[in-house]
Amino acid sequence: MKLEYFIAKRLFNSKEHKSSISAPIIKIAIAAVAIGIVMMIVSIATGIGLQQKIRQKVAAFNGHIIISSYTGNQSDVSTDPISMNQKFYPTFKSVKGIKHVQAVASKAGMIRTETAFEGIVYKGVGKDYDWSNIKEYLTEGRIPNLKGNLNTEVVISQFLANRLDLKLGDSFNTFFMKEDANKMPKSRRFKIVGVFNSGFQEFDSSFILGDIRHIQMINRWKANEIGSFEVFVDDFSMIKERTNEVYNEIPSTLNAQPITEKFYYIFEWLELFDFNIIVILVIMIIVATINMIVALLVLILERTQMIGILKSMGTTNWSIRKIFLYNAFYLILRGLFWGNLIGIGLLVLQKQFEIIKLNPESYYVTVAPVDINLFFILLLNLGTIAVCLFVLLVPSYIITKISPAKTIRFE
Questions:
Q1: What would the mean pLDDT of 53-61 be, rounded to a whole number?
Q2: Which H helix or E strand runs over 258?
Q3: What is the mean pLDDT of residues 374-383?
Q4: CB–CB of 198/204 below 8 Å?
Q5: What whole-number distance in Å separates Cα of residue 22 and Cα of residue 296?
Q6: Alpha-carbon distance values, 157 to 76, 131, 167, 198, 204 (Å)
Q7: Quick one: pLDDT at residue 362?
Q8: Within 13 Å, how many C-alpha atoms sit on residue 43's CB side?
Q9: For residue 249, what are the contacts with CB-CB under 8 A and spacing of at least 6?
Q10: Tens digit of pLDDT for each residue in 311-339?
């Protein structure tokens, strides 16, 4: 066992040390480190969790990349049809990282009941539609059966069902306007077989999902004509690169747009979380470091006579500094232990019991999501230790200025 570590361990475990004047200061330093790591773990887990959840919800209803005609690229409503007979459909083989491609079409309409009416966007989907993205948000019923003949089954949001006083199994009339406003709108009667609640107000307040063949019939499109293609990628972080690759592979009459551009206001808002997380990390590390500096200085002042004796026996300044850095390292580890225990415990409770609720109109989710990433937590702990010890090298330099002759007489 190294001499420095042996002396540091004896100092920290001694009864005299625990009852000394530095004891409350040490406890405050440990508490500061613990509180700091709790705040950092919670801020990172909730910030990343919220970003991932919102990205997932936007992609669930729109895909990661939208391929459509140039005229209908900015609208939720399909205007000009495009052919399904494309080289990239149903499998985008020319671009790596493409998980799925599905054909969809949308049309604006109005639901009319005996007591209320509501404007909606009917999203028509086909047999190729990946319902796994929506099933997570399904609260009642099932998904529509689109494998057989044309039927009237639809999935509606809980938000629209409440506003229209509808429930699972009810039928309702929907009116779709024609291009010629002077003509009577076309009517369709749909039956609710499923109810979803994504917590994303922008989609819940507008969309119902059903058979794409209804839109094809209303718009007088051919069976192979649709509104757009939704493309899903394997890695969201590569969405811009994949969009450029997709754009280069599709016909010149079509455009490829990532959801980060179509819903730019959502993703710009999400980027603010990265800045907020960095600010919290910096503040917490500064607070923890200042408390550790104070604790280290008090420990040095308390052991001034011991420092003088060690120097008179030939111990180098660096060896003595290492004794106190070992003490500081032990304090940091204690703070990290309790901080990780409390921080991860809070995250587990939130993930299991969804204690903290959020306003979906402001945060696009009903529950504060958390992402418990052990790798990030490990990096956070190692980073905290490295920064604190590096900063503590400066106050430990005071040991080199202590004179053995004066310190032995110091009281």
A1: 92
A2: strand 254-258
A3: 95
A4: yes
A5: 9
A6: 17, 15, 10, 8, 5
A7: 82
A8: 20
A9: 87, 88, 92, 94, 95
A10: 888 889 999 999 999 989 999 999 999 99
